[in-house]
Amino acid sequence: QVQLVESGGGLVQAGGSLRLSCAASGIIFSMNTMSWYRQAPGKQRELVAAISVGGRTNYPNSVKGRFTISRDNAKNTVYLQMDSLKPEDTAVYYCNAGFREYNYWGRGTQVTVSS
After folding, report:
1. pLDDT above 90 coverage of the chain, percent
2. Which residues make Cβ contacts (< 8 Å) with residue 103, sequence separation at least 6?
3. pLDDT tens readout for residues 21-61
4. What local confidence, expressed as pLDDT, does residue 59 receive?
5. Nearest 5°: CA angle at 17, between 104 and 88?
6. How big is the CA angle at 14 (ends 10 and 17), to the nearest 5 degrees?
7. Which candidate, 50, 57, 94, 97, places its Cα nearest to that of 76?
8. Rounded CA gap, 19 and 103, in Å?
9. Burial of 44 (0-12, 13-18, 19+ CB in 10 A)
10. pLDDT tens digits, residue range 56-69?
11. Residue 49, exposed/middle/buried by CB under 10 A (0-12, 13-18, 19+)?
12. Are residues 82 and 66 in contact, defined by beta-carbon separation less than 8 angstroms?
């Protein structure tokens, strides 16, 4: 049974920080590309960060320089450090694990940034 469990979401003021965690089980974590997506009401789901099995990272321009993705293979956990948060970052954040044709998703965690 594959399970991805996000935590760390919540309410924060603009300019503040949050760290999201995603604990994975049921997969060979070190062989999966791990990523974070977000979806705001009325908007398309978008990739916010990805980290490869080799540790290479990718970010869209909207979060580059503010968000940092990291992984701890020993803990089967991927993190998203979010700094300098903006109201536009408000969304449900989802953890994703990808290996070949397989993609697994967490249930999501709400991040709300107040102005």
Report:
1. 100
2. 96, 97
3. 999 999 999 999 999 999 999 999 999 999 999 999 999 99
4. 98
5. 70
6. 55
7. 97
8. 23
9. exposed
10. 999 999 999 999 99
11. buried
12. yes
Amino acid 96 reads: N
Main-chain dihedrals φ then ψ at residue 30, nearest 5 degrees = -65, -15
Tokens found for residue 107: 């249930």
The secondary structure of the chain, three-state, reads CCEEEEECCEEEECCCCEEEEEEEECCCHHHCEEEEEEECCCCCCEEEEEECCCCCEECCCCCCCCEEEEEEHHHCEEEEEECCCCHHHCEEEEEEEEECCEEEECCCEEEEEEC
Residue recorded with tokens 């049921």:
26
